[in-house]
Amino acid sequence: MSVLDKLLPEFFIKVDRELCIKCGQCVKNCGFSALMQDKDKNVKPIHEKCVACQRCMYVCPTKAIQVINFPGTQKNNEYWKPEYIKNIKKQANSGGILLTAAGNDKPYPVIFDRLLLDACQVTNPSIDPLREPMEIISYLGEKPIDISIEFRDNKYVLKDKLKPNIKLNSPIIFAAMSYGAISLNAHKALAKAARECGILMNTGEGGLHRDLYEYSDNIIVQVASGRFGVSPEYLKRSAAIEIKVGQGAKPGIGGHLPGYKVDDEVSSTRMIPKGTDALSPAPHHDIYSIEDLAQLIASLKEATDYSKPVGVKIAAVHNIAAIASGVARADADYIVIDGFRGGTGAAPTMIRDHIGIPIELAIAAVDDRLRKEKIRNKVSIVAAGGIRHAADMAKALALGADFVTIGTVALIAMGCTLCQKCYTGNCSWGIATQRPDLVERLNPDEASKKLVNLIRGWSLELKEIMGALGINAIESLVGNRERLRALELSRETLDVLGVKPAGR
Amino acid sequence: MIPALEHIPSGCAAAGIMNKSGVCISGDAIMDMMSVMHSRSNGLGGGFAAYGIYPEIPDYYCLHIMFDNDSAKREVDSLIEENFITERQEKIPTRNIKEIKDPPLLWRYFVLPKPDKLVAKNMDANDFVVRLVMLINTRIPGCYVNSSGKNMGVFKGVGYPEDIGRFFMIEKYSAYIWTAHGRFPTNTPGWWAGAHPFSILDWTVVHNGEISSYGINKRFLETYGYECVLLTDTEVIAYTFDLLVRKHGLPLEIACNVVASKFWKDIELMSEEERKLHTALRMTYGNLLLNGPFAIIVATNNYMMGLNDRIKLRPLVYGKKGDFSYIASEESSIRKIENNLEEVHSLVAGKPLKVEVNKDVCA
Ligand code: SF4
Ligand code: SF4
């Protein structure tokens, strides 16, 4: 190996010889084989292999191990960041595409952080969510434009039948993450938690493992360009169906599950040969236009007797409002808009970091457009990509989304530390991996409990925020931009958001 | 002129009287009711709605319009001439009193839409009037349509309600329904059109409270063609009732289950049919839920109704004596004019109390 081939390590593993009791826990736990023990049981780090998944630090009983940024410095340069230099060297070695995982981590302005929520003072009272009902139930699906009622047997009854809608106890959906990209235990945890919370999880594009059939009332099944695992059975075992056109982390490109993640179970769930790469083409090969999408929506509805909502997931790109309007008119019942901060198991770095637009702007533009065209009732809007906490959720709702999805947040609740190495298949936390030794670390019951706690916490926080706003039903929060103010956003951005500046 | 593009929260006093046999009484009584609640207003807005006041010309829409200047009036005049047959038009009589300063021009027009215009636009007369009102309010600066119903009118402006009443000489009108309002806006533009009642066609609404859901109520109504220009939450209430009851044909009680929807916990306990209905209402019209404290009195030519928000954050009291029904923010206000009540009670959270005039009063 020539010195030209060499890369400096990103991280540096320090083992405190005094504290270390040589138990070997860290070595066993490192999914990336960055630690070894010599014959005297001394822990020996291989810094180059460390990805800062932090598993060793969590498991070490004496906290004898610390992972820090590699201390060797380069000459400071605000423009040629160390990351760029490292990437250039990597590519000079490999001649390949740079890969990464999780969401866009670049320092673009975060609009959520420039938006502030309102609260009641004097003229209208805030509401105490501990004493008064605070309603956050939402329905996913198409709503009628009006309803007709008749007077029968001395009471009013509904005349027509509504389109299929799914009731969610909180406006939160676990984002699409496929079995294959993440482990079966992770999928089980999500499904179990979704059922317990009365919300939904999304299979992503990897099919539905038979162990999850019992959770079908709380599952959205995805139909993506690879059509993995799609069968009549699959479509029936769901609460809703989602056509995945795009993903915020990688708009315009397909997916790639490396063959080493395709074991027996993944292979049979996805209906592909074991060990082969699962390649989702960039476009659906039967969708080259909006009419084609309309046909696929119609076929899926037909195949399931019009019994469940069919949604479409698209990435937030420049012309999102017009695209969403087309999708609504193509008879989708809900639209997931995935912003440029959306996560992924694997994506080309250039794509993840430079394509798409922020979810905040996308929701606002889509909600406005659908209202202007008087078709807002035709679809539920689901905001995805980069929702970090309950306040982000409340802001997304106030901008016009009916629901949010959480992917990264759910993974973190299950242990993920955002090392961004999901595509390697070595996730030390047993999430983004199919290695049996790693998968078994994630106990589905325990992980599901964490998720349930998380949803509970966010729901309570949402209720607190609504109480402060003096509203007790989520219908009064969704699209209520009057209760948002912006701090230091440009006039154009305010215009797109439909939000006034703070102080006005 | 709209002083600032702001939505203005408000406090306030509300009152209403109705005689179900259609016996018309002078405005003195409602003035009396309002005077007791003087401290609930702050002089920045008062107003009255009166039904049955133009019996000699009951079949014409009466447009009460206020103008900031002559040029606005000229523009409106030509718009009216183009679209309506005008039976009569006149200045609304007022009395000069020192408390009321700088009133706008106040004018009323008794009109019917030109039949050929209705045919051309393929609209019924009510829709046509609504469209024209929206057009005047949004497109012509410096004017505002205060009311547009038949045999009724709204009189309102900047001042205490008692002063506004004297200014408009409301003692000279006789009505079988009177509603009134005194405003306590916490944000202060002295703006005549911002006073209550708010009205479209013969709907009038007076409102004590603040609608915390205003932002989305307004956006929802806009998709149904209503343009909210007054930036005062009460405006959305008038349009909401017009949309739900007149346009979508929902019974008033059901419309009330939209603006003060049933709680999910109660919906769960209902029979299956009822549950379906109320679930559908919330799914379809959830954005029209008036969330936040309110006590409103809604009136039309045929009835008067009081309604509170679903957790009752504002007072509203009902009283009855013979053919007379009263609704007011305070019981004292009712007792001021009728101490010998047969019935008196507070309204229940989210439950409408509607009193109707007899069938023969209004055809
Ligand atoms: S990869 Fe993870 S477990 Fe391994 S040394 Fe680095 S931080 Fe520790
Ligand atoms: S899921 Fe695992 S591999 Fe992926 S970022 Fe999280 S910890 Fe790292």
From TrEMBL, chain A:
Pfam families xrefs: Fer4_21, Glu_synthase
Binding site for [4Fe-4S] cluster 1: 20, 23, 26, 60
Top-level taxon: Bacteria
EC number: 1.4.1.13
Residues where [4Fe-4S] cluster 2 binds: 30, 50, 53, 56
Domain 4Fe-4S ferredoxin-type per the UniProt entry, residue ranges: 11-40, 41-70
GO molecular function: 4 iron, 4 sulfur cluster binding; glutamate synthase (NADPH) activity; metal ion binding
Catalytic EC class: oxidoreductase
Keyword Iron-sulfur part of the UniProt annotation: yes
Swiss-Prot/TrEMBL catalytic activity: 2 L-glutamate + NADP(+) = L-glutamine + 2-oxoglutarate + NADPH + H(+)
Keyword entries, A-Z: 4Fe-4S, Amino-acid biosynthesis, Glutamate biosynthesis, Iron, Iron-sulfur, Metal-binding, Oxidoreductase
InterPro entries assigned to the protein according to its UniProt record, in alphabetical order: 4Fe4S_Fe-S-bd, 4Fe4S_Fe_S_CS, Aldolase_TIM, GltB, GltB_archl_type, Glu_synthdom
One of the GO biological process terms: glutamate biosynthetic process
Keyword presence, ATP-binding: no
Family assignment from sequence similarity: Belongs to the glutamate synthase family.
Protein name per Swiss-Prot or TrEMBL: glutamate synthase (NADPH)
Species, as recorded: Thermodesulfobium narugense DSM 14796
From TrEMBL, chain B:
Record bears the keyword Transferase: yes
Key words, A-Z: Glutamine amidotransferase, Transferase
Pfam families: GATase_2 (PF00310)
Secretion signal span: none
The organism's place on the tree of life at top rank: Bacteria
Domain Glutamine amidotransferase type-2: 12-358
Active-site residues, as the UniProt record annotates them: 12 (for gatase activity)
GO molecular function, one term: transferase activity
Name this protein carries in UniProt: Glutamine amidotransferase class-II
Native source species: Thermodesulfobium narugense DSM 14796
